[in-house]
Design goal:
The chain is an alpha/beta fold. The strands form three sheets. The protein has a four-stranded parallel sheet, sandwiched between helices. Helix 4 packs parallel to helix 5. The longest helix has 18 residues.
Amino acid sequence: MQKILVSSCLLGNPVRYDGGAHGPYTLLQQWQAQGRVVALCPEVSGGLPTPRPPAEIPGGQGAAVLDRLVPVVDIDGRDVSAAFLAGAAAAVELVNRHDIAFAVLKARSPSCGNQETYDGSFSGSRVTGEGVTAAALRRHGVQVFNENELALLAALLRD
């Protein structure tokens, strides 16, 4: 059975930066009941507490963080890149251990966003881009979806 890496917050776990969670999502619950889900919050895995100050990537590009071109900074100006990189490495390790080809990650997150992220200004402005973990997973050949794309993944899993 094909395993799926899933952002822990999408499973209702209170690990978001603000201590909140998302969901429940019916498909994620079904996949979890089938034993398909491998859950991870990259930011918590990387050593950040819950709750924590919000963080963004200047320019919104997680690949640039992986390449050490820009940092991830929190709203207080602290560089939290090391935690984001450690969380991305933990995700890649899980993907390798469980032979995972698909991930469902939280949209717009500086770790998990797969299509857009915030621009680093803490103003709510979004840019096309992906988070640090999403970028790392794509580099390892994982197809990354967000919670609004569950039907697309479900169609792939049926094939």
